Amino acid sequence: MHLLLVILFFLEAQFCVQSSDSNSPAGENLATNGLPFPWSKVRLPSYIVPVHYHLLIHPNLTTLRFNGSVKIEIDVKNNTNWVVLHSKNLKIFTATVLDEHEAHLSDKVLSVLEYPSHEQIAIFSPKILTSGEKYFLYLEFGAPLSDGFYGFYKSTYKTKAGETRVLASTHFEPTSARMALPCFDEPIFKANYTVRIRRGPSHIALSNMPLEQTVEIGNGLFEDQFEVSVRMSSYLLAFIVCDFRSVSGMTATGINITIYAVPEKWHQTHYALEAALRLLEFYEQYFNILYPLPKLDLIAIPDFQAGAMENWGLTTYRETSLLYDPDISSASDKLWVTMVIGHELAHQWFGNLVTMEWWNDIWLNEGFARYMEFVSLEAVYPELKVEDHFLDTCFGAIGRDSLNSSRPISSLAENPAQIEEMFDTVSYDKGACILHMLRNFLTNEGFQSGIIRYLHRFKYSNARNEDLWDSLIKHIDLKKMMYTWTLQKGIPLITVKRQGRKLYIGQELSPIYVRFIHFTVHNTSLSNPDVLTLDEEVDWVKLNSDMNGYYIVHYDEEGWNALTELLRINHTALSFKDRASLIHNAFQLVTAGRLSLNRALDLIGYLKSETHNVPLLQGLGYLQSFYKMIEKRNIADITHNLKTYILQYFRDVIDKQSWSDDGMVSDRRLREEVLSLACDFDYPPCLEKAKHLYNSWVESNGAISLPTDVSETVYMVGAQDDSGWAYLLEKYGVSMCETEKSKFLSALISITYFIHLLLQLGMDGTLIKTQNLPSLIYLVAKNPVGHFLAWDFVKKHWDELVEKFPLGSFGIRNIIVGTVTQFSSTEELREVENFFKSITEQVSELRVIQVATENVEKNIMWLSRNLETMRTWLQQRLN
Ligand SMILES: *[C@@H]1O[C@H](CO)[C@@H](O)[C@H](O)[C@H]1NC(C)=O
Ligand SMILES: *[C@@H]1O[C@H](CO)[C@@H](O)[C@H](O)[C@H]1NC(C)=O
Ligand SMILES: *[C@@H]1O[C@H](CO)[C@@H](O)[C@H](O)[C@H]1NC(C)=O
Ligand SMILES: *[C@@H]1O[C@H](CO)[C@@H](O)[C@H](O)[C@H]1NC(C)=O
Ligand SMILES: *[C@@H]1O[C@H](CO)[C@@H](O)[C@H](O)[C@H]1NC(C)=O
Ligand SMILES: *[C@@H]1O[C@H](CO)[C@@H](O)[C@H](O)[C@H]1NC(C)=O
Ligand SMILES: *[C@@H]1O[C@H](CO)[C@@H](O)[C@H](O)[C@H]1NC(C)=O
Ligand SMILES: *[C@@H]1O[C@H](CO)[C@@H](O)[C@H](O)[C@H]1NC(C)=O
Ligand SMILES: [Zn+2]
């Protein structure tokens, strides 16, 4: 699955709940009808194993209901007279058990016990099911199409003519297959699936496998029968009934790739086809295993909560993650689409072919898929410069991991809300950074051949953390080394002291295996240090070359001085990654109270002559995030001085930017960020230019295309007066491009006066889709006067929000973190804590509450430590 996380630049953390035991002791569990339920655990018993599902599904897009039947071939490993499996919100009409010859074991319809708090049902068999025999369960069931984003759910879209059309699509990961069919809904239970879908004549049906045949069954209905699938976990099953249009192509190895979208967005599908063809061919070579299905579909679903989902052979996407309009989408939009496709395609091997045994190791799926985004794009699309973004991934991970409330990569997760919460920065981003470090250690070739070994060994089956380490390399105890990274939380801190030619290396926080420390001494690579004697006296030492290691480095006084001086005199002596990582480490140490803010601000003094976008945006990003926090605290003098300083100091960079789409991707990204900042800070030349572009755009009634990278900034400025705002809202309603709409929305939200109206529209879900509500709330909260409004809205509508975005889901996490982390005073902290206390029953198991409140504590601490320093430093610089 691809996360769609709100990017929070400032201080973040992740909290770890110890496994809360949700198993009640045996015997106490009563089913809904009052009879004792035969199984007391959240996890299913392991002695009944599904082998093959034969599924028939019949959705009705008019009545918005579906019904279906499933015949599950099972292996019985221990004698028993009941079967427990998952089912959630389904009405079970009949249940029977058949023997090997498909003869009923009883003429009576069997009773089904339901145990909703574990999302399980139990079926009693009239005869003992004997170990070693083959049986079939047969169930008929039905339910309304789900209203949210999980299970078999309803999605809608509007045509240009204003007609609303309905489709039905699935999203099962991690625990929602049980909402669409009764099943053994745990990743270890891999089985083959044979799917049939009934539909009307104006729709098509899609599933994981290619269509085998279509049968007309009377009453104007058709039944599409799909080929039998390979063995896979239930969360990867998918089916869709819709009226989309498509475009197809063939890979060199004969895989048919098809991109689907709503008919009027068909012209936005072509880039995705090209990217999917090239990336699939890359992975087949890289993994040295052919993609095992005959086809791969990529489909843009109008209502989608995550970024995308890797269902085997039928990957699903948010429209913004798949559709690309060359006239409207920006360079960043293109990079995003390419990365998401790279992610989902990597999952076809990592996740689909080899699956983690249980959700505690979800990082094996997500850390790998996140890392392969970078490996594949670097190879296939070097011009997109994806490596510029890799450090951000690790910086994001460190932000969370640096607080007490982080968690180890492999952590316990039992119930659905805990499992949902595993899909977080730790699994994705820290996972990817650890793998990057490992790849540097093993060499590219060693890493790749180890992965190939691992995939071959565990294909169509499941693996654990240690299975990966055991596969990667023979003669080194990699397990022991890697456990220090995957089984403990936290970011290691390495300290360096230099005395003459001797370097003393120390470790704090999470001790790590020291072989991973590499560093640059005047361009000489060394490793395995502790106390180290250099061959000659040197001027400076920089550890963690290119930040290939997942740790932070703290130098002694002289060390920081030497590096600050080096950057000032000749910053190109260090790579751009080294420069960005120095800036990052310094500000991280300020937050931790280990380095004074002065030192960090002096370090970035050299940025005036920086030309690379990564260190430049890194330094600017810190200043901007301090500004946002101080602005919300209404500290007028510092707010004013900091703004003046930033505008003066970065003036050359700002003035250099053109209002166009020229240049390389990295130039374009810099332009997008820098001009957005300049206009946000009311820099007159920026406002003038944007206003001018906005007016010509309005005069042409939207016919001229604005430069895509700056269009959001142009809308933002245009929205500042009432008629401009109203025009954008009208355009929002009719736009056929989701990336454009999200730019309109950012602009609309910048006007405080209309925030209430927009939040209401987001809640209502008609003009602004419910899927966009979490980011809408976050955008409001970022606004200098919006954070109270956003928080009040969240409190007032909490119950409705949780209904739309279940506890543990990305949606609710983004809402909580996005609003709460804007706060930075003790009164606000108390207010937040009181609210969560008032709903403790609901949220006591959520990590994200601790994440959010610990962030506020960090903000408070940061201000109390650094505000005066900042004030004085600015006064000195501006005089
Ligand atoms: C669904 O219900 C309708 C009406 O009760 C019935 O005709 C149809 O056969 C059912 N379909 C399935 C798949 O059970
Ligand atoms: C199933 O059978 C195995 C081997 O006979 C036994 O070890 C195990 O305890 C049994 N499990 C249950 C739940 O009865
Ligand atoms: C859906 O239900 C309506 C009304 O009952 C019926 O006319 C239509 O044929 C059904 N469509 C499908 C695909 O079952
Ligand atoms: C089930 O899937 C496996 C591969 O995972 C395949 O070899 C086997 O043929 C499939 N079973 C059926 C009945 O098609
Ligand atoms: C690929 O699949 C699409 C969708 O099923 C189909 O329309 C197209 O004909 C197929 N292409 C080839 C070359 O088989
Ligand atoms: C860190 O968290 C644990 C529980 O998660 C707590 O017991 C401990 O006091 C915390 N340490 C600090 C320094 O806050
Ligand atoms: C550093 O060393 C590498 C390889 O040893 C060499 O290619 C590179 O030019 C050197 N860089 C500098 C700045 O000396
Ligand atoms: C700056 O450093 C680079 C790389 O070490 C070197 O090639 C260059 O000559 C240096 N320039 C100055 C002015 O010292
Ligand atoms: Zn994923």
Tell me about this structure:
It is found in: Membrane. Residues 1-19 form the signal peptide. It is an enzyme of class 3 (hydrolase). The protein is an alpha+beta fold and 879 residues long. The chain has a domain at 349-486: Orthogonal Bundle (Neutral Protease, domain 2). The chain contains 29 helices and 28 strands. The chain has a seven-stranded mixed β-sheet, with no helix packed on it. It has a five-stranded mixed β-sheet with strand order 15-16-17-19-18. Strands 26-23-22-28 form a four-stranded mixed β-sheet. Strand 12 and strand 13 (221-226) form a beta hairpin. Helix 26 runs parallel beside helix 29. The radius of gyration is 28 Å and the shape is globular. The chain starts with 47 loop residues before the first strand and ends with a helix. 52% of the residues are buried. Mean pLDDT is 90; it is low at 5-27 and 511-528.
Give a brief description.
It contains 29 helices and 28 strands. The structure holds 2-acetamido-2-deoxy-beta-D-glucopyranose (8 copies) and zinc ion.
Number of strands: 28
Largest sheet features: 7 strands, mixed
Distance between the termini: 52 Å
Name the shape in a single word: globular
Bound molecules: 2-acetamido-2-deoxy-beta-D-glucopyranose, zinc ion
